[in-house]
Structures are given as structure tokens and as C-alpha cells.
């Protein structure tokens, strides 16, 4: 298991309020590492990378289509995208090299998912990643 996968599992899935997580390499537009069973398709990678390439207001208006679901965007800025679909959601945090993706499902606290994902994003940015 790689250091990055261990980080995902311990700091995100370890909260019990993140269902799945992944790191996407921004420059290559490719999946770097993901939690077991979390299959992020190339079209999903493009959607997330493009979500940051657009004007944040445009992303917020249009929402996201991720993992075959339409999500309503509740936050979009230079470093973060939060989107929800009923009782599920996706949190995406941008670092220098990666997009950090975390999902939550019904029964999980979105605020814990957001806090854990943002904290790991801050850590990776400080490390230059």
C-alpha cells in the first residue's frame, strides 16, 4: 500500500464519515490512488478537473455530473467544490498537484467529511503536493 493510499484510508475513511476517496493528478488528468472499490472513470476525472478550470460561479450554477448522478453544487471556489444529491455528496479539494475527492452517503455527517478533506488538502499543500 502506498503512502498516499494510507493517508486516504487513515485520515479520510478513518473518520467513518467518508465513504470513498481518491487522488487525481491534475496535470495528467489521471487517477493516482483510490480507496478500495472506488472506481473513478476517466469521464469523472475530466468532470472534476473541468469543475476547477471553469469560473467557480459557472460550476456552482451548472452543478456536477459525477459517478452517473447529477449533483447540486453548494460551494465552488479556487480550492474547493462541494456538491450534494439528496443524502449523498462529494467534496473535492484542489492542491498544487492533486484533486482530493471524498464522498459521503446517507447517515454520515457531511461536515466531518468536509473538515477531514479540507484538512488533508491543507496538509498536502503545505508539503508542496
UniProtKB/TrEMBL annotation:
- State whether keyword Cytoplasm applies: yes
The stretch of residues making up the signal peptide is: none
Biological process GO terms, please? cell differentiation; spermatogenesis
Role, per record: Involved in male fertility. Required for manchette development and acrosome biogenesis during spermiogenesis. Binds in vitro to phospholipids, including phosphatidylinositol 3-phosphate (PtdIns(3)P), phosphatidylinositol 4,5-bisphosphate (PtdIns(4,5)P2), phosphatidylinositol 4-phosphate (PtdIns(4)P) and phosphatidic acid (PA). Contrary to other profilin family members, does not bind to actin in vitro.
Which PANTHER family does this one have? PROFILIN (PTHR11604), PROFILIN-4 (PTHR11604:SF2)
Q: Which family does it belong to?
A: Belongs to the profilin family.
| Protein name, UniProt field | Profilin
Amino acid at each position: 500500500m502506498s503512502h498516499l493510499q494510507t493517508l486516504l484510508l487513515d485520515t479520510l475513511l478513518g473518520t467513518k464519515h467518508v465513504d470513498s476517496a481518491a487522488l487525481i493528478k491534475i496535470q495528467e488528468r489521471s487517477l493516482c490512488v483510490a480507496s478500495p472499490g472506488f472506481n473513478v472513470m476517466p469521464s469523472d476525472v475530466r468532470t472534476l478537473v473541468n469543475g476547477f478550470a471553469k469560473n467557480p460561479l459557472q460550476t456552482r450554477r451548472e452543478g456536477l455530473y459525477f459517478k452517473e448522478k447529477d449533483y447540486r453544487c453548494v460551494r465552488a471556489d479556487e480550492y474547493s467544490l462541494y456538491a450534494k444529491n439528496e443524502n449523498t455528496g462529494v467534496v473535492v479539494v484542489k492542491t498544487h498537484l492533486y484533486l482530493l475527492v471524498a464522498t459521503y452517503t446517507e447517515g454520515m455527517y457531511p461536515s466531518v467529511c468536509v473538515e477531514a478533506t479540507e484538512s488533508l488538502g491543507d496538509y498536502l499543500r503545505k508539503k508542496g503536493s
